[in-house]
Each structure stands twice: as structure tokens, then as C-alpha cells.
Amino acid sequence: MGFANMASALEPERKASTASESLTIRAFVLGLITIAGMCLYATYFGRNLMKSFVPVTALLPLVLWVGINTVLKLTLPRIALSRTEVMVIFGMVWMVGTAPAVGWAGYLITDISAPSAFSSPENRFWEVVGAYMPRWLFFEPGDMVVEKLYVGLGSEESIPWRNWLTPLFWWFAGTVALVMAGFFASVLFYKQWVERERLTFPLATMPLELLREEPAHRLPIVFRTPVFWMGFACTAGVIFWNIAGYFILTIPRIGIYDHYLTKAVHIGRDFPTLYLRIQPLLMGLAYLCPLNILLSVWTFFVLNIFKQALMDRTGFSVGMQGQAATSGEIRMLEAHGALVFLVVWSVWVARGHLKETLQKALSDDRSKDDGTPVTYRTAWLGFSATFAFLTGWMISLDMRPVVALLQLSLFFVIYFGVTKYAAATGFVFLSPQGQKGGPILKTLLGTANFSPSDLTGVMVLNRGGLAAHSGRMLSIPAIPHFFRLLQQALKRRFLVVCALPISLLGAYAIACGAQLYLCYTEGGLNAAYMYDWTVMLGQVGIIEGTEPTYFDFQKLLVWLFGVGEAGLLTVLNTRFASWPIHPVGLAFPSHTYGFAIFVVWLVKALTLKFGGVVLYRRSMPFSYGIVVGYLLGVGVSSVVDAIWFPGSGHFVHGW
Asked: Three-state SS for 265?
């Protein structure tokens, strides 16, 4: 009888738990509304909040929804969102957080229009490159649609939306194929990373902890922890103090979190500049990163400083006369070689799991196919279909199939590497060397081995128009984190599968529409992002063949040296449990944030040494407070700037 009563008592709790893990239409709709608001706000008032693949444009809505939901739980608990619903909203926004403005849409609009608008007889861009640029992705020179984009419309003129449909459609087609390939690949590797390699997913840990509750309390546990509020005060207090200084000019500014250029320290002649940058968002999340990875990042940071100084001081270079690699290019080749090894090694380690997924996909017994959120059969078919479409899309740029496949392979290396090591490290500014692979192709193989159409295609694919820049990757690194956020709710449900493509379509339409409206009403010369155009303009000599480079075995040796370094470090990590250096610091060198990572490593190492795991766990809410306080401060500052200082805001977040 006693056991029966106990079971009866636990039944409502089980039902509540099951309900809290469900994925609802309400969460899906609120996610889309949040995406719309995020895109509009970022375009007009927060144009610099998309500086990484985990942008403030995604994290700030998380803080807002956590705050709103906490108030609802205290006042109107019946309509409060469940933990899973908040995670769905955050995951949807995160996957498209880099879509607006400087993240993706701003560069895309420039990529489509700038060649037409700014080609001239002097720069000879269209004369040399125009013949190889497909008209379904770009406008023709002299098109009034483009001219009005940059100078603005007259009072009686309307925005030519219809003229933009064709290029925007085909750019979106290529982007969504790349992103969905990442989605299906994430399905194939997710269980390998979670169950076998046990990646920590720090970027998913913090949002889940912000909503963790105890049955007897409506307030999340972390908000009842004094240490959390201490961390919160360290960042929010500083930013709010500076906000007061916007209006009271006699208040001295606290510049501890200012732009990295204000933290420059010149070590000596031929040494690269050292930046003593304190970045709360990076540091708060990096505190959750394994100690050996933190040590690896700042160790290679120090080594790279001395390597570059030694090469520049001695004039060391690699390569044939006339195309010798500088110190920066040497470090790029070394880091990319290390990244390629890590990606190949990761696939090799997962070979058993991938074999199982393929066997389950080919099995007639559908009950054995336990892939989530789609079956492994769907994942393999989807990945194959998107890969084929991407190949055809790239060949349509008039690239030779072999060049298209080489570029796709480098896409896989870059996206796979960032996605996996974002899940392993929690670094929000994880940026690969060699962009999306174009500079690697041209450096290793030489431009003389490519046709002008090949080089044009590589140039186009490596700009920000296709799924954003490599440092602000759209969607793909967020996908396995979205799976992690859903936890038990990650099931084969229609909403889970539709969340990514619908979010991407909605964000794309709103971000591009808002960017076009801004350019046509205020003039694109004031609102466009011209970096991509200047890079494309520099490719004229390479594409016409007047500045050719050739295959250089010495440069290949540098790349292979990076492969060997990463291989040696991987073997040492595998054979010796106490080996302290991880190869990730070699593959993703950090110049701007090396000092910040050193500070995090030092604090975490001392915490574990003198307080052990117990003290470390007790200190974790401090890092959450740092992040939440920073995000709230950035949000408030951007609102203040939008109201009182439009067009001339204050620096709060960025490099």
C-alpha cells in the first residue's frame, strides 16, 4: 500500500516532467517572432553585435527570455514557459543570429551589387572578371537598381524589390544547401560526440544552468546564488557606470572592457603587438573549457609571438623567389595543416560509429535506426542530396568539377573543425585560418593551375555572401548545440526538423529586406559593408593572370609540418593521460584573445589546485554572472544609443 501511495504521489511529477520536455507550437512561434525582432533591431541599432558564430544577437534574447520567464513564474506560473520552450527559442535564434547586418545580409547585398556599381575602366574589374560572374547571382554594370541602392531613392521612387528576387533566391539556395548539409552531418556525428567522445558543450551548459530549478522554488537556482550576483556586478556594474557617463561627462570612463586596440602593448621591434584584452563573454564561457585546452591556446599564443618575431627579425621566408610566403602566410599554412589533421583524425575516430549509422540506414528493420532528430537513413540521403546540389551549384559558377570538389572538401574541414571544437572548448571567437579554404587552394597549388573562371568561383565562394564569413559562421556550429539544448525533447518531431530551414528563411527574408530598405532610403554608401568589395577588387591581377603563382613544394612542406605537429600532439594526448597540451591551440591560433585565455586558465588552475572540483563547481555561477551581466549591459547600452545617440553610438561589444 505504501509503495502504491508513493507511486501515486510521484505520478504528477512524472507528468509534469514529461510536459516540460515537450516541444510546443507556442515555443516555435515565439522563436520566429524573436528572430524577426532580432533581425530588425540588429540592422538598425545593433549593427556590430554579430562578431562571432555565437553572437550577442542570440545571447541577448536568451537573457531577456530568462528574465521574462522568471517574472512569469513568480506572478503568472500557468502561462510561464517550460525550460525546453525557452531553449527552443534560444536555439532557433542562435542558428540564425549572424544573419542580419555585418553578420551576413550586409555583406551579401554588397557582394551582389558592388561589382556592378563600382567597376570602372580604371580598376578594370568588370573588364577582366565580369565574363565569369553569373548573371543569376550579380547585376550588370549600369543597372539603375544598383545605382539607386548606393545613392538612395528619390521622394517619388519605390524600392525595386522584384529585381532582387533572382539573385537573392540563388544565394539562399546555395546557403541553405550548405547549412542543411551541416544539419545532416550533425545528426550523423552527434551521438559520437556526446556518448563516446563526451564533449562538454560549454556553450549549451550555461543556458541550461540559467533555467535549472528545484521543485520547491520558482526562481532558478543560479539566481539564488550570491556568487552569481558577484560576477554580474563585475560586468553590468562597469557598463552601467559607463552608460551614466554618456550623459554626465564628468564621470570617468572605466575602460577595462574596451576595444582591443586600446589594450595594445608594443613588446619590441619585429614583435607582433600584444593585446591585453579582457573580453567577458569569451572569458565567462571559456571558464567551462577543459584546462588542457586553455593551456594549449595560450601556450601557442606565446609561441606564435616569438615565432613571428624571429621570422620577421631574420627575414625568414619560405617559397620560390617572387612568391615567398611571409610570416603570416607561414603561420596560416601551419595552422590549416593542423586543422586538416584534426578533422581527418576526428572522422577516423568516428569510423565505427559512422559504419553503424550506415548499417542502420541500410537495414530493413526500421526499429534499429535510432538517429535523432531524423533517422540515419534520412541523414545519409539528405547529406548526399545537399552535397550533390552544392556541387552542381558551384559547377554552375563555371568552376571545373575537380576544383568544386576541392573547395567543398575545404568547406567540410572548416565547418566540421569549428563545429566540433566549439562543442569541446566553448570559445565564442573560434576562427579558422585560411577563410573558407580559398587562400589555401591558391597558396598550395598556385593560381597558374586554375582557370580564370575557377579563380572567380573561388573568390565568390570565399566572400561573405555564401553563409557569412568564416569567422561568423551561419547556423552550422549551432546545430549540435541545439540538439544538446533540447536534451530529452530531441525526438523525431516535425517541429525539430523544420526549426532550422524555417528560421533560416525567416531571418534571411527579414534581414535582407531590412538591409535593402536601409540602403535605398538612407543611401548604401552610408549603410553598406564595403570590405568584401575591396577584397574582390584585389583579385583582378590574379584572375587575369598577370600576377600568377605556381605550385611551391616548400609551402606544401610548411602545411605538412602543421599536419605532423598536430599528429604528434594527438598521439601524446592519446598515449599519456597527463599530457597537458592539446593540438586545438595550434589549429586555431588566437592573437587578439591570448591574454584573456591565459587569465581564465590561471584562475581555473588555481581554483582546482587549492579547492578541487568542489570549489570549481561553486565558482561556476560567477562565470555565468559575468556573461549575463555583460549581455544585459550591452543590451541596455544599445537601447540607450538607439534612443539618445542614433548614428553615433558608444563602443561596448566587439573585437
From this structure: strand
Question: Within a 13 Å sphere around the CA of 539, how many CA atoms are in the beta-carbon half?
Answer: 27
| CA pair distance 326, 315, nearest whole angstrom | 9
Residue 244, in any domain of the structure: no
Distance CA 651, CA 258 (A): 7
* Domain of residue 504, residue span: 18-200+289-592
Extract the C-alpha cell encoding 99: 544573419
Domain tally for the chain? Answer: 1
Q: What's the pLDDT score for residue 254?
A: 95
- Taking only the tens place, the pLDDT of each residue in 603-642 is 999 999 999 999 999 999 999 999 999 999 999 999 999 9
CA distances from 369 to 192, 366, 426 (A): 15, 5, 31
Assess if residue 470 is contained within a domain: yes
The bridge status of strand 264-265 relative to strand 274-275 is antiparallel
Within-domain flag for 471: yes
C-alpha distance from residue 340 to each of 60, 212, 288, 334, 569 (Å): 34, 38, 26, 10, 14
| Closest C-alpha to 241, from 635, 622, 628, 637 | 637
Structural domain contains residue 497 = yes
C-alpha closest to that of 459 among 473, 444, 472, 441? 441
pLDDT in tens, 520-561: 998 887 766 777 788 899 899 999 999 899 999 999 999 999
Nearest to 66 by CA among 274, 230, 222: 222
Q: Identify the burial level of 247 via C-beta atoms within 10 angstroms of its C-beta, where 0-12 means exposed, 13-18 middle and 19 or more buried.
A: exposed
